[in-house]
Amino acid sequence: MAQHDQLHRYLFENYAVRGELVTVSDTWKRILENHDYPQPVKNVLGELLVATSLLTATLKFSGDITVQLQGDGPMSLAVINGDNNQQMRGVARVQGDVPADADLKTLVGNGYLVITITPSEGERYQGVVGLEGDTLAECLEDYFLRSEQLPTRLFIRTGEAQGRPAAGGMLLQVLPAQNAQADDFAHLATLTETITAEELLTLPANDVLWRLYHEEEVTLYDPQEVEFKCTCSRERCAEALKTLPAEEVDTIIAEDGEVDMHCDYCGNHYVFDAMDIVAIRNNASPADPQVH
Ligand SMILES: [Zn+2]
Which Cys pairs does UniProt list as disulfide-bonded (predicted)? Predict the structure, then answer.
């Protein structure tokens, strides 16, 4: 039986190509909690989650990656943010009707895929590609091609495992500074492409690799846990409050007696009353515990 919410890395012994395999279930469920998204939006968030997990696993440094779809369609925004520890969060914004069978283009409309890489130390990098491909995987491959990074292929599947929604994906990438033959890479990609949602989401990683590459020599490394984690905090909200015009905050306090800040990612509420606001303005840290 497949163990979900784990990311596996693997390496082909006879080719300068590496691979990744991830499946998610709980992490996806947590991201969907506290929201009432139409099914096609849930699916896109699952695909984005898988993609972000695979992308953050390619980072050679600590930091995070945000993969974001935005456009003029009924799903104006879908975003997943994840870091090198595979801690993930995400949200979508939906306006108007979403047809039950809406594909990516119908959901996003005229739009873009925006990838932001933020190292813990150093320069932030942002890549933007138009939505040329029909699937998220194709759009991401387009991004890798245009940003002149290493040749990369992605394979993303959504479905169910043990009666629960699950999503999974695989990534193949040429190793840097080595001469992987284009033919070899294409051969491995052709093999990988045959993976079905059922196989990927129900078989242990070892069995998936055997099924795809039984004629190749593949080393599978210990998995890394993938989990939902939001980075919001009362302190960060207090920082954000400081950037708002004082009159605006005072008006809210006068009308409601408190400022209720809501995190779109996890649904947490952070409530600040008049005393807290005074404390924040005096740069003291607000004393109240966070309110769920
Ligand atoms: Zn949060």
Answer: 230-232, 263-266
Per-residue model confidence as pLDDT tens for the chain (292 residues): 778 999 999 999 999 999 999 999 999 999 999 899 999 999 999 999 999 999 999 998 999 999 999 999 999 999 999 999 999 999 999 998 899 999 999 999 999 999 999 999 999 999 999 998 889 999 999 998 888 778 999 999 999 998 899 999 999 999 887 777 889 999 999 999 999 999 999 999 999 999 999 999 999 999 999 999 998 999 999 999 999 999 999 999 999 999 999 998 988 999 999 999 999 888 755 455 555 5
The rounded Å distance from CA 244 to ligand 1 centre is: 19
DSSP 45: H
Q: How remote is the CA of residue 216 from the centroid of ligand 1, in Å?
A: 43
- This prediction's pTM: 0.89
Structure-token match 């043990």, residue found: 162
Structure tokens at 133: 């491909």
Region 6-228: CATH code: 3.55.30.10
Report yes or no: 107 and 39 within 8 Å, Cβ to Cβ: no
Smallest CA-to-CA distance from 204 within 13, 23, 11, 19 is with: 23
Q: How far is the CA of 105 from the centre of ligand 1 (A)?
A: 29
Ligand 1 center to 282 CA (angstroms): 25
Centroid of ligand 1 to alpha carbon of 184 (angstroms): 43
The CATH class for the domain spanning 234-281 reads: alpha beta
Domain boundaries defined on the chain: 6-228, 234-281
N-terminal to C-terminal alpha carbon distance within the chain = 35
The label of the residue with tokens 């004629």 reads 215
Give the helix/strand (H/E) hosting 65: strand 63-71
Q: Could you tell me which residues come within 8 angstroms of residue 60 by beta carbon, excluding any fewer than 6 positions away? A: none
> Token pair of 262, please?
């809501």
